[in-house]
Amino acid sequence: MDGVTETIPRTELRTIRRVISDLRKDLFTDAFALRPVPPLDATHPLVREMPQRFRPYAPWLPHAALTAFAFYLMAVAVEIEGADLALVSGVPLLLALYRPVGAWWLSFGGSIVWGLGITDTSVGGTWPWPPTLFASYIAVMVIVAFQNRPRVAGQMLLLTAGFGFAYDLFADWRPTNSFPMVVTSCVIVGAVVARRSLRETKQQVAVQQSATHEERSRRTLLEERATIARELHDVVAHHMSVIAIQAEAAPYRVANPPEELATSFATIRENAVAALTELRRVLGVVRADDPDAYADADPEAPQPTLATLDTLFAGVRAAGLTVEHITTGAVRPLPSGVELSAYRIVQEALSNALRHAPGSTARVEVAYVLGGLGLRIVNGPPTQAVRPSPGMGHGLLGMRERVAMLNGEMTAGAVEEDGGYEVAVFIPAAAVPEAEAPGPEPSGQAPGQAPGLKKGPAPEEETMKP
Fold first, then answer.
1. Residues 6+ apart with CB under 8 A from 439
2. pLDDT, tens digit (0-9, with 9 covering 90-100), for 88-122
3. What residues contact residue 346 under an 8 Å CB cut-off, 6+ apart?
4. Do 386 and 256 share a domain, yes or no?
5. Which of 156, 176, 196 is the last residue of a domain?
6. Residues 312 and 367 in one domain
């Protein structure tokens, strides 16, 4: 119990010290430092509503209004009490535009001096704050509350309440307006603090939403890159496997091959197998974040190409989207990576049309042009209700990533004529040589035999590994 009894005073002392430290830091340290009230932002509603010729001066309207209010109070104070009250009422309000905390101290000190120095006033019931000083004091506190953290407003209200309580306690022989001052200042300054806190909260939420959107976009981009890596792995692995098999089979198709040729083919095969091993290792890293992403996919299924677009269109039409397909130019085989990426771009564009323009008509144009492949996917405006989509824009990130990977160009945006959407892509690509293009094998050559090699007998007791 003794330990608990000793801890409580120590905790209270630490709390009191912290409060005093905060008070000194907020209201005493650099109290008269220059902290001018900033002008209104160009996006402020008051600035936007002003006529064009007055708009350059609109940001300074609060400063002009406070200055006019200060001189008005000074004029009224001269009529009520004289020049002394005019100075005590107006000078702190003017100073608050540039040194708000120092202006509050000046107004607070002026209130104390006025309350102690005036034994009788011409206006009954307004002691120790005459009407002009009453309005000026609250206005200064409002400016300070706008410029500083809510803790500062609480400290000012606490000191004001203490000052008013002291006057009520030691000046019971005359009426005071301490209670109206405390209540009015608490209501007005509290409303200012609440509004400022609400605005800061909205700003923090907006920043968090922006950060969340950026994080979501970054994750989508990484996922799309992982998908591209998985797909290209199959394309590259196929070519590397063909190289390895052809390199292993080549020595057996040449009668009495030189030792140097056999060694070269063996080196080629070893390098191809090593490259396949590295590809599998990289793919393992890519799939580490989501190893089950493609667990249901058929590992033996061929990658889609432009030749399988009709199957894609059939599925999209079944989902409710009308699709028109036009192919221009001389159809020719293209590199596997180009065909795969082109297919995925068309697929994503049609998915976006289904998601963001339900009931519309889409038009897919595939152009085999000199030096590459052109894609244009256009959809009309939606004719049905569009459901909210939190992932809007992420499909475009994936398409841009694929196009950038192939050194292509892409544009995407709304169509001004009808309110639809258009995606245009150009991917540079050379035609696949005839020897690599799928088709019938050249005459006199066995299937899978490399061009220019003659079939020869394989050595006894040796078999070709698949």
1. none
2. 999 999 999 999 999 999 999 999 888 877 544 44
3. 309, 312, 364, 366, 375, 377
4. no
5. 176
6. yes
Query: Measured between alpha carbons, how far is 160 from 27 in angstroms, rounded to an integer?
Result: 13
Range of the domain at 157: 31-176
CB half-sphere exposure, 380, CA atoms < 13 A: 11
| Percent of the chain residues topping a pLDDT of 70 | 78
Q: Quote the tokens at residue 387.
A: 């459901």
- Could you tell me if 40 and 58 are in contact, meaning their C-beta atoms sit under 8 angstroms apart? yes
CATH number of the CATH domain containing 410: 3.30.565.10
234 and 268 inside one domain = yes
Total-model pTM = 0.53
User: What is the spatial distance between Cα 134 and Cα 107, in angstroms, rounded to a whole number?
Assistant: 10
Paired strand residues for 379: 362, 421
- Tell me the C-alpha distance between 385 and 71, whole Å: 59
Number of domains in the chain: 3
Q: Which residues pair with 363 in a beta bridge?
A: 324, 378
* C-alpha 158: how far from chain center: 41
What would the mean pLDDT of 47-69 be, rounded to a whole number? 91
In a domain, 196, yes or no: no
Minimum mean pLDDT range among 109-113, 120-124, 144-148, 183-187: 120-124
